[in-house]
User: Fold this.
Amino acid sequence: MFKNLIANLFADDRQQPLLDAEDAEIAIAALLVRIARADNHYEQSEKDRIDLVLARRRGLSQAEATARRHTAEAIEAEAPDTVRFTRQIKDRIALDDRAGVIAALWEVCYADLRRDADEETMIRLVASLLGVNDRDSALIRQRVLADLGIEG
Assistant:
């Protein structure tokens, strides 16, 4: 399973098939892990937030969400290229859901209650690659901060 997903994510050729819905969700989970690891501090609060986001996105149980995060951690560790990850996700999900992905990324970014420039820079790159403009990403960020009760 991992080998096929990695092959599809990182094939140089655009002829590769699009990810199926399950693989797209794992790719999104891996992107969440990548954001959490961007500051070189991957804390339990971030893992817990990823599990919560994954459970909420697709109605997974806590155990299923944790298992998906473990899969995503393994994939993210093998994945050298954020751009290809993002391209596959963009090609697979609707624009409305891309805004939801950006919200999830901001939520994970602030899970440790710290503002980190590396994580924020990565989210801005991913938002752009997903076709979400800076203004919309900033509005999503403000909404997430308000939902989390954090002053931005």
Notes: The chain has a mean pLDDT of 87. Residues 2-7+20-148 form a domain with the TerB-like fold (CATH 1.10.3680.10).
